[in-house]
Specification:
Layout lengths: L1 H18 L1 H10 L7 E4 L2 E4 H19 L5 H8 L8 H17 L4 H23 L7 H26 L6 H4 L14 H23 L5 H24 L3 H18 L1 H20 L1 H11 L4 H18 L3 H4 L6 H5 L6 E3 L7 H7 L1 H7 E3 L9 H37 L4 H19 L8 H24 L1
Helix pairs in contact: 1-2, 1-3, 2-3, 2-7, 3-6, 5-6, 5-19, 6-21, 7-9, 7-10, 9-10, 9-11, 9-20, 11-12, 11-20, 12-13, 17-18, 19-20, 19-21
Subcellular location: Membrane
GO cellular component, one term: membrane
Protein name: O-antigen ligase-related domain-containing protein
């Protein structure tokens, strides 16, 4: 019965791709969490998210072939003026490296699935956004409102879960004393990973609307209220999920944005930073909290440090540091080196002596640790999955993205173009992803990898548009 419903939806969506291809792509953005709806056809697993991406791509290819009228003379005459895909060389190299990582993982079905879901399909989506949404007027607003709707859906469910304790599958997180919202996802941190960069982008969009005059000021006020409420609800959802990494990522993005957007905001940001630091330094509890977070000496930080120690040992073993483990092989390769738990350090000056001499105390500070799917650090995640070259390539890709966003926003700001706010917001969103990724996994997940390449396509459209106007 479920497969029949999937088939009906597939037919509906395929018709939509032919009649309204833009709507079809925007629906993908709204429904990024739909990867959670899984099905199997003839033993081949799939998700609604990848079904939509593949159907959109097939429909786009069919339209191209149907209207195909190749002229060699026209091709060569337009070749000099043709703008190539932004980030094309990096994308081609990434596909090559990630496909090679499938062979490092011995061509397992799991590695092929990871390659398809986290690299091939997101890059296909990148191509679709460039070619379909890139031709639309006000394409940015269409993407923004789609993200806003998606964020609202995730946030409203998270807030409801916090208030009622219902619809949280994990009993520990559902209990009132230890409650953490998970929204549609299976674990709390996924809420922060998904919403943090969206909050940053929506905030830059709101900033743009606040400082740009609209012909219909009344409509603009209503839009700003909706955007502000969406940002507020998303922040509540992140807090209710207790995703501290996401909040720190948003804070880092706000500093990045404030320092670069204009001189007035730079002054406000610097003054706010100085005042905040003074308050933290002069408040013992805040200083102690900040010290534990920065030095990673709280519980989650100590668990992360243990993961990284084990990952380092694994990478140094048998030249794994060169090729990595291959896609989806981290858990299996880390298992022989995994430590079942850690003794959690605290501020007790006699902590070590008590651990050595007291079995009761050892039991009190003992924390079991699980074998995670990834090392929970953005650089180690790519290093273990794609090898050293893959990690360096992703570092280059992210660096180039930030450079392009900063440079283009600066150029447009000097030209007094409203888009400068949003483009810098796209850069700030990557900062949020990067900072949160220092202690988590902000890419290796279906919705996050598609969202990652949506950001690249989004910025890429602006880059191509600006080159065309030069």
């Amino acid at each position: 019965m479920f497969n029949i419903l999937v088939l009906i939806y597939a037919i509906f969506y395929l018709l939509l791709t032919q009649m309204r291809p833009t709507w079809a792509l925007l629906l993908i953005i709204v429904a990024l969490p739909s990867y959670l709806i899984r099905f199997s056809v003839f033993g081949i697993p799939g998700t609604i998210l990848e079904l939509m991406i593949l159907l959109s791509f097939a429909s786009w290819i069919w339209t191209l072939l149907k209207n195909y009228n190749f002229s060699l003379k026209k091709y060569w005459s337009e070749k000099k003026n043709r703008i190539s895909y932004p980030f094309k060389w990096e994308i081609m190299l990434l596909l090559l490296i990630s496909y090679g990582a499938v062979f490092v993982a011995a061509l397992s079905s799991e590695s092929l699935g990871i390659f398809k879901a986290y690299f091939l399909e997101p890059i296909i989506f990148f191509i679709l956004v460039i070619n379909i949404l890139g031709k639309e007027k006000r394409f940015s607003e269409k993407i923004l409102w789609s993200l806003l709707i998606s964020a609202l859906g995730v946030s409203l469910l998270a807030v409801y879960q916090k208030l009622t304790g219902q619809l949280i599958p994990n009993e520990f997180w559902a209990a009132e004393a230890t409650r953490r919202s998970v929204s549609f996802f299976g674990y709390p941190n996924a809420v922060g990973l998904y919403l943090a960069p969206i909050v940053v982008i929506l905030s830059s969009f709101l900033h743009q609307k606040l400082f740009v005059k609209s012909e219909n000021q009344k409509k603009n006020i209503y839009e700003m209220i909706i955007i502000a409420l969406s940002i507020l609800l998303s922040l509540f959802a992140i807090v209710f999920a207790q995703s501290e990494g996401a909040l720190i990522g948003i804070l880092a993005a706000a500093i990045f944005y404030g320092l670069l957007v204009n001189q007035k905001m730079r002054q406000v940001t610097l003054v706010t930073l100085v005042v905040t630091l003074m308050i933290i330094v002069s408040t013992p509890k805040l200083l102690d909290y900040a010290k534990h977070k920065v030095t990673l000496t709280d519980l989650s930080g100590q668990i992360r440090q243990q993961q990284w120690i084990e990952t380092k040992k694994m990478l140094l073993h048998n030249h794994t540091w060169i090729l990595g483990t291959g896609l989806s092989r981290y858990q299996a390769r880390i298992l022989p080196l995994h430590q079942e738990g850690i003794f959690v350090k605290n501020d007790d000056p006699n902590w070590l002596e008590k651990v050595r001499t007291s079995a009761v105390y050892r039991a009190q500070v003992w924390q079991p640790t699980e074998v995670y799917m990834y090392p929970h650090n953005i650089f180690l995640n790519f290093w273990t999955e794609l090898g050293l070259l893959g990690m360096l390539l992703f570092g280059w890709i992210i660096g180039k993205y930030l450079y392009c966003a900063i440079k283009l926003s600066g150029v447009l700001r000097r030209e007094k173009r409203a888009e400068s706010f949003l483009i810098l917001g796209l850069g700030a969103a990557m900062v949020a992803i990067l900072v949160h990724g220092l202690v988590d996994v902000p890419y290796f997940k279906n919705d996050l990898s598609v969202f990652f390449w949506l950001l690249f396509a989004w910025l890429g459209i602006y880059l191509v548009s600006y080159k065309n106007k030069k």
